[in-house]
Design brief:
9-stranded antiparallel sheet, 5-stranded antiparallel sheet, single chain, about 35% helix, about 220 residues
């Protein structure tokens, strides 16, 4: 499931992150990938050991924690702390697949869901689309600053070359309570239907029955 989540970051949060990244030291992004990824990756990142990365990552994580759409889509169990990258001067990341098991410090997880939070407006740079490939073809994603995209970590994806300006983003991976992508998608659709019916003051007993079915499925599928 490829899902656009608008307005994850507030204007104040976005401005603060941008101001810090404007003066941050950047390193070669190939430091954080294996030999295959290094062949197709050309970007810059904030070092993993940087206190700034930890500070800004906490802002992003707190913003996502208060977002009900993100929670409904990802059903997060464990997340890796966000990283921050920059693409410019033709920088790109060719088609690749994220590692299945990832480790950062004492945190180790199975990557079920990938998330990118865009930190620049689309008109600030040319190119830089996130391209996600699935059974229905390739989908280009270039979102407003502060918005996020979530998609299955099993998807082949790339970042198109940035030919003008600079593209800034935060990105991270999630181990979901529900391992199977089709099950997560079904639960998300059910949750959306429940919320819509409640907003329309639908029959309370019918809504209750649907909510009961949602939680029974989540109880059946969740890994806790």
């Amino acid at each position: 499931m490829l899902l656009h989540i608008p307005n994850v970051l507030t204007g104040e949060e976005l401005a603060y992150i941008r101001s810090k990244l404007a003066v941050a030291p950047w390193v070669d992004g190939r430091q954080t990938v294996g030999s295959l990824g290094a062949q197709v990756k050309r970007n810059e990142q904030i070092e993993d050991a940087s206190p700034l990365k930890e500070e800004l990552g906490q802002i992003v994580q707190a913003a996502l924690a208060r977002n009900p759409l993100y929670f409904a889509a990802a059903l997060p169990r464990t997340s890796l702390p966000p990283r921050f990258n920059r693409y410019r001067d033709g920088g790109e990341y060719g088609f690749h697949v994220d590692g299945s098991v990832l480790r950062r410090g004492e945190v180790q997880l199975r990557s079920d869901v990938s998330c990118t939070v865009f930190l620049c407006e689309p008109d600030e740079y040319e190119g830089g689309e996130l391209v996600v490939a699935d059974t229905y073809g390739e989908h280009e994603v270039k979102l407003p600053a502060g918005d996020a995209i979530v998609y299955p970590s099993s998807s082949l994806h790339r970042v198109a070359p940035v030919t003008h300006g600079a593209r800034l983003a935060a990105f991270f991976w999630v181990q979901s309570l529900v391992r199977d992508e089709s099950q997560r998608r079904l639960l998300f659709q059910m949750d959306a239907a429940i919320q819509a019916l409640r907003a329309e003051n639908a029959n309370p007993q019918a809504v209750l029955q649907l909510a009961n079915s949602y939680h029974n499925l989540l109880r059946r599928w969740a890994e806790v």
